[in-house]
Amino acid sequence: MENSLYKGVYVFAEQRNGEIQKVALELIGKARDLAADLNEKVYAVLLGHNIASQAQMLIEHGADVVICADAPELENYLTEPYTQAMCHIIDQHKPDIMLIGATTTGRDLGPRVSARVATGLTADCTKLEIGEDKHLLMTRPAFGGNLMATIVCKDHRPQMSTVRPGVMQSLEADAQRQGEVIMAEVPFETKKFKVKLVKSVKEKSNKIDISEAKILISAGRGVGCCDGLKLVKELAETLDAQVSASRAVVDCGLVGHDQQVGQTGKTVRPDLYFAAGISGAIQHLAGMEESGYIVAINKDKFAPIFQVADLGIVGDARQILKQLNDRLRN
Amino acid sequence: MNIVVCIKQVPDTTEIKINPVTGTLIRDGVPSIINPDDKAGLELALRMKDQFGAHITVITMGPPQADNALREALAMGVDDAIHLTDRKFAGADTLATSHALAGALRNLSCDLIITGRQAIDGDTAQVGPQIAEHLDIAQVSYLRKLDYDGKGTFTIERTVEDGYEILETEAPCLVTVLSDAYPSRYMTVKGIMEAYAKEVKVWGFNEIEVKEEVLGLKGSPTKVHKAFSRGVKAAGELYELDTDEAVGTIISKLKEKFII
Question: What is the pLDDT at residue A286?
Fold first, then answer.
């Protein structure tokens, strides 16, 4: 493969119900850094139906070029039509790098596309940079976050990578930014469409997006499941914060999976992360260590959480939570 | 109906600890388990068998000790087990792994291929969809529920960020299952006894239909450039105080940081 034929940093601009997902803007933000190092352009790939009007927003957030496939086949996400569209665009435009959000859509689409175009895909990268030889260095946690690995894809293009929401940072929108929009016509092979969407069901839940929270009070095994959790909730209320939890607490069923922080849960970076009774299994640390200020309370002074905490308190999390809450309320 | 479940034996990553002095992984004594999402996949297959009389084959790719994972699946009630193992498969990334598995699956008649959504040691969620692509069949990932009409049509609930989708597809297809979708049954005593008497087929490169150049380290487009234990952030302050003082310290720090 002649790598030099492949140019540009591409981002899959995921939309759901016509709304551009935040992760797409975050990836465009990262793509700008990479493109600057490579002296290449940032391309956003926008797939959907009646969607072209969203292109401007992608440009305002940092895309130089938007490649848009607007077709009824792309109305809702389905693996095969989206794979065909992506592969067509890859074939026509020859991207050097393709970044995809690690959402349920991106993690369904990414591997299918990578297998079809026979290139590598690195999942859930937490760091992306350009190496000395101009290859993309993709760093990700492995072994449940116990180890970090930097992956390269030297001989295949595009270099594909997925990144979780919340890991990269988007740029401020600049309404003055100009860019180009290219409309793509995808020659769909409809006989390969084997999956039919019967309906999409929105689950109205009190789902809180912990990755958006400014302050998180996070419960671990050390506060226990029932009454300890109540203390955590009370403190969260006092500080106008949200509650998150480690896997141990989520597994006991009292906190929803959408509130789990860590490798199998969410990546968070609040201004304050307050870890109560969390020992800090590495997969937990992987999800929160970028937080602005980390307070940790744990009985065990050797708990790994103290390796990332800005303020560590060796002590009983329940007692401290209770008294802290009392004093803050008065 | 013929169902094939792809499973992986993984180290129980929640049991892995880091040596606080050297910062390296302590892997000794870490138990190996069937990957949780895959176990839910086994349970889904077994329920299909209970209801529709399916024949279930379980397959894994891995080193010799992965035999244990296959025995466990046999003890849960699957009918056949295949252990894919060969030096030529070693060092594979997800794409090369998917080629080996797809090569083995081409030898089997499958109406439904089930994999876990992702494995807890890699967390990539890539191998399932990549297998489906090589076999040129439909995929539905993030499955939380599957219904079968008994005539070849599957109705599947797929979890997404803001709810779920109801999708319909026909056999053959590949699904990737979430661990909490189907809490797995226990092995039976009879099952355990029989599992060790049953034959596990061992297949290597010569038994599967795939080109050698797409396998193993050589066939892997991605390579590990370097691996390292995560850098320890500059340690903060650590205090051992009584509750009263501890609370005071927290409050003054949070004030200092303008958080409260």
Answer: 84
